[in-house]
Amino acid sequence: MKSLRLPFQFTVVMWAVYFVEVIANLDFGAYGVFPREFFGLRGVVFAPLIHADFNHLLSNSAPMFVLTFIVMYFYRRVAFRSVLMIYLLTGFAVWLFARNKFHIGMSGVVYGLLGFILGCGIFRRSLKSIILALVVMVLYGGFLSGVLPTDKDVSWESHLLGAVVGVFTAYWYKEEIEADEQSQPPSWEGENTEASYFLDRDVFDKTKAEREAE
What we know:
Largest sheet: none
Shape: elongated
Helix content: 40-55%
Low-confidence stretches: none
CATH class: Mainly Alpha
Strand content: under 5%
CATH topology: Rhomboid-like fold
Mean pLDDT: 90
Distance between the termini: 63 Å
Number of strands: 0
């Protein structure tokens, strides 16, 4: 299934990067986003693929896979562009506004995907988008606390800025709706509506003499 390809590729690359780091005894942390320094811009591309430890990697893998799949499957017209926009703009926003430290991990993108799905429910207002927004709120509503600076070792800026970017992306693409989001006319308003009436539509507009003449 094509919708599984990108989340699967993300997962493979994330885990491959981590195991190369562990096996070769390397530290890729310096390839994260370092705000407002030119060298830190490389983290816009590389930071989401780098994780501090196994728990960090594991905590990001499942929500990244699930949320990316939801976007790729249910919003196919804009899916790849949306994921790319979230990926790059989140990193760039962190580079502009975050604390002066290295920021790594896929969590910013995860919050971006979450914000995108919630934003689609707000801006598109189709039944599908509203249901999907409610589903991810039930599954990942607890993530909302992650946008607060509760732990100095956690890049809460990535979480907050990712969520903002995700909502912005949903707004940016809100007009490019899917075929199943098109509003359909009620079944009783089809082309053969006239034939479904027991009496002629104009029967009460005619006089008694006109009806008898017919």
